[in-house]
Amino acid sequence: MKALISVTSIAAVAMGAALTFSAGSALAQDAAAGEKVFAKCKVCHQIGPEAKNSVGPVLTGVVGRPAGTYPGYNYSEANKGSGLTWDEATLQVYLKNPKAKVPGTKMIFPGLASDDDINNVIAYLKANSPAK
Questions:
Q1: What is the Cα–Cα distance from 61 to 12, expressed in whole angstroms?
Q2: Residue 112 sits in a domain of what CATH number?
Q3: pLDDT of residue 27
Q4: β-strand partners of 66
Q5: Is 5 part of a structural domain of the chain?
Q6: pLDDT (tens digit, 9 = 90+) per residue, 100-114?
Q7: Is residue 1 part of a domain?
Q8: What does the alpha-carbon distance between residue 107 and residue 113 come to, in Å, rounded to a whole number?
C-alpha cells in the first residue's frame, strides 16, 4: 500500500511540475520575435533613441508610462483621461483590443489576435525602455 501511495504522490508532483513549466512557457517573451510583430505598429509609431511622434506617439519607454503623457503628442481625451499606466497587464488587454480597453481612443488598429505576439511585442517594448 505504501508503495502505491509513493508512486501516486510522485506522479502528482511530476504532473504539477509539468503544468507549472507549461504555464511559464506560455508567458515567455521574445523581444526579437516582438520586433518582427512590431512592423505592424511602425505604420503609426516610432521607437528608439531618435523616435519622433507620428500618427501615433513615440513608444520608447512606454512600459511603465501613464497613458496620454508622451510630450508633444495630441492624445484623445479618452486616452488622456483613462487613468491607465502601460504596465504589462494593461498592455496585454489593450493590444488585444484597443477600443475595448480605451473606448474613444484615436488608435484605429484592431489589435493582435495572438497572445504570443502580444507578449513578444511587450518584450520588444521593454527592451526599448531607457535604463532606470
A1: 43
A2: 1.10.760.10
A3: 54
A4: 85
A5: no
A6: 999 999 999 999 999
A7: no
A8: 16
**Does a structural domain hold residue 19?**
no
Question: Which three-class secondary structure state does DSSP give residue 85?
Answer: strand
The cell for 109 is 488598429
Q: Is the dihedral of CA 71, 74, 75, 81 positive or negative?
A: positive
Q: What is the dihedral of CA 23, 24, 27, 29, to 10 degrees?
A: -150
Please write the tens of the pLDDT for every residue from 4-16: 444 444 444 444 4
93 three-class SS: helix
Domain count along the chain: 1
Q: Which residue has the higher pLDDT, 131 or 46?
A: 46
For the chain, counts of helices (H) and of strands (E): 6, 0
Domain hosting residue 123, numbered range: 30-127
